[in-house]
Amino acid sequence: MLGELIEKESIDVSEFIAAGENHIEEFRDKLNAAQRLGNEFKSKADITFNTKFGPKTVNTTVWSVTEQYIQLKNGIHIPLTSLIDIDF
């Protein structure tokens, strides 16, 4: 785990900043696998993203992946450009 572990309910969309490197293409297969794990098996993934307060990690179910965001429960969206790591 790379960042401070937080609950998904405490994610503040105004705090996202781009990660130092763009990992979107590198993570595409992992993101799709995490979505499948969440939808079919109700498994969670550790998603680390960059904020203006440093890296944060959330352990949650990925509901969907779009061209620009990861969607979590309760309408929470994490921009793909802020991703640092994803693990499950």
- Stated plainly, the CATH topology is called SH3 type barrels
**Based on CA inertia axes, which overall geometry fits?**
globular
Biggest sheet overview = 4 strands, mixed
Specify the CATH class. Mainly Beta
Distance between the termini: 11 Å
Judged by helices, strands and strand pairing, the structural class is alpha+beta
The CATH architecture name reads Roll
pLDDT < 50 runs, ≥5 residues: none
Strand proportion, as a percent range, falls in 35-45%
Number of helices: 1
Q: Please give the domain count.
A: 1
**Fraction in helix:** 10-25%
Number of strands: 7
Tell me the strand order in the biggest sheet: 1-3-2-7
Q: What is the radius of gyration computed over CA atoms, rounded to a whole number of angstroms?
A: 11 Å
Q: What is the H/E order?
A: EHEEEEEE
Kindly state the mean pLDDT as a whole number?
92
List the helices and strands and how they pair.
Elements: E1 4-6, H1 24-41, E2 45-51, E3 54-60, E4 62-65, E5 69-72, E6 77-79, E7 83-87
Parallel strand pairs: 1-3
Antiparallel strand pairs: 2-3, 2-7, 4-5, 5-6
Condensed summary:
By secondary structure, this protein is α+β, with helices and mostly antiparallel strands.
Structure description:
It is a single chain. With 88 residues, the protein is α+β, with helices and mostly antiparallel strands. It has one domain: SH3 type barrels, CATH 2.30.30. The protein has one helix and seven strands; from the N terminus they run E-H-E-E-E-E-E-E. The chain has one helix spanning 24-41, and strands at residues 4-6, 45-51, 54-60, 62-65, 69-72, 77-79, 83-87. A four-stranded mixed beta sheet has the order 1-3-2-7, covered by helices on one side. Strands 4-5-6 form a three-stranded antiparallel beta sheet. Strand 2 and strand 3 (54-60) form a beta hairpin. The longest helix has 18 residues, at 24-41. The protein starts with a strand and ends with a strand. The model has no long low-confidence stretch (mean pLDDT 92).
